[in-house]
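Here's what a typical entry looks like (nicotinate-nucleotide diphosphorylase (carboxylating)):
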Amino acid sequence: MIEAFVKEALAEDVGRGDLYALVEPAVPASAKIVAKSNGVVAGQKYVDVLCKLEGIEVQWLKNDRELFKNGEVIAEFQADSHAILRCERTILDMLLHASSIATLTQQYVDIIKPYGVKLLDTRKTRPLLRVFEKYATRCGGAVNHRMGLDDSLMIKDTHLKTIDNLAQYIAKAREVIPFTAKIEIEAETFWIAQEAMKAKCDIVMCDNMTPAQVEEVIAFRDENFPHILLEASGNISLDTIESYAKTGVDAISSGSLIHQANWIDLSMKMD
């Protein structure tokens, strides 16, 4: 999967061929990627595959999940000049995209780490980039939520509009979905959260609730269904996530890890 993605990314940039390579023969060359801001490395696995395909030797001075500072060298490359310059933009774009997501994700993780709460990503990813972007959140310290509709059965507010009896639906679902698949119910109110637990779901998502409302759901869960996991989601930001972590919820999910990540600054320099 990574190889196919990398090949397609490179082909998008090269098109029918690099016009630079038409002018002069290739010469031995070396280059390095220099950080021009602070961040967290992500994208190493993808760059390694591209370099192997294109005959470029790469040495990493910083690896996936490691912090880097402005001015530090992240990786060094050796190959002929045509190969390095042909791959320059694709290498940088993959590292920039992934590292930017990882950098923002770690900011969230650092805030909630003292509370022992898991940080989850969501399915709010760019089309055809889900695996890549969720890999980036892992590099930043998050735990992946489901990759797709086949991972677990999640009943959102839109689904609930089609279900007359939630308990009967869940009982029937247990007979047809995989044994290892969990059932999660999205609840926008305390009442829906209660009904979801009584219907024997595995996880309740407290969606768009205030921290005080989440605490109310937690108290009910702890007294009646201590085995059920609780997830908080909706309007989670760097400013609000700590207030949710303090509630004692099991996990917090946020789409902003991906769609609010601003690109950091990396540059390739030829030696």
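The chain has two domains: 1-109+262-270, 114-260.

More examples are in the samples folder.
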